[in-house]
Amino acid sequence: MQALLLEQQDGQTQAQLRDISPDALPEGEVTVEVDWSGINYKDALAITGKGKIIRQFPMVPGIDFAGRVLHSSDPRFHHGQSVILTGWGVGETHWGGLAEQARVKADWLVAMPEGLDSRKAMVIGTAGFTAMLCVMALEDGGITPQSGEILVTGAGGGVGSTAVALLHALGYKVCALSGRSATHPMLQQLGADTIIGREALNGDCRPLEKQRWAGAIDTVGDKVLANLLTQIHYGGVVTACGLAGGVNLPTTVMPFILRNVRLQGIDSVSVPVARRVEVWRRLIKNLPATYYQLATREVALADAAEAARQLLANNVTGRTLVKIR
Ligand code: NDP
């Protein structure tokens, strides 16, 4: 079987397409023939070695995949069944989806829900799954379309573009923050009502600014997150899922103690199974058919490493799908 294999030489991560024996796959109850995987930000950090994602080499990256069960020793899954995997450290500490086969724990798999297929599931991928978690967190915080405008940062990326599509479909007014004018046509087609440039929120800010947003979905962190927090309505909710702009958060307590703002962290890796099933149900229900065409490009497994470099260089719009077979 073919796999993208990450190895380390002189402290540098090397990514090579290799022929490996399926016997080399790690332990797990279910072996899956992978049809589609994707390049998420975390995959790009792992493949290029720019982030300390992988600690044990050799490693097959790929934090998500969809495919069909080849063998299962667990009664919940049978030969030929379509399944999805996101998270659980797959592609980080356990060999992942950028390979023709993957062997994983049955507990980590979700049976393909009605209304999805392998390709559509990976158009959504971890990025889209995370966008839905963010939208559900806004809802859990009481934010409705009547509350006011929602800001989405890093809007041209996988999480951001899916968040724009979901919020628009749910009737929210959406402002997309993007650092690139090339993303504007896609963002408009996905339903962004307004688009602002990254520089609008990338400078120094006062502890509180004019209240502008009922909520925000932030994929960027650092100054952008600090700035938007100063502009959130009284009682508003901000979800923080990403670090595309940096890991710092140079803020003050003022938005929290004077405007009752809620900052909700989002993790997609260890979401309990029942919540996962609900997230996929909502994605199928809320994403419009156009989303699957607008926010996607496809690459071959042999081109996955180059796609990872392009993603980190901020040259990619929407989701990158990897066609495995
Ligand atoms: P993408 O690369 O697809 O999107 C990131 C976007 O952020 C880019 O398209 C760009 O949008 C913007 N961006 C890039 N560089 C910078 C920068 N230096 N400063 C400000 N904005 C920048 O990645 P994903 O959508 O896959 O992931 C987005 C973030 O969410 C990542 O940090 C990722 O690690 C995180 N994430 C977290 C998860 C979790 O479980 N918490 C799960 C999935 C993702 P534009 O050009 O439009 O400005």
Automatic annotation (TrEMBL):
One of its GO terms (molecular function) is acryloyl-CoA reductase (NADPH) activity. Signal peptide: none annotated. Pfam families: ADH_N, ADH_zinc_N. It comes from the Bacteria. Residues 11-322 form the Enoyl reductase (ER) domain. InterPro entries: Acrylyl-CoA_reductase_AcuI, ADH-like_C, ADH-like_N, ER, GroES-like_sf, NAD(P)-bd_dom_sf, Zn-ADH-like_protein. PANTHER family: ACRYLYL-COA REDUCTASE ACUI-RELATED (PTHR43677:SF1), SHORT-CHAIN DEHYDROGENASE/REDUCTASE (PTHR43677). This is Oxidoreductase. It comes from Izhakiella australiensis.
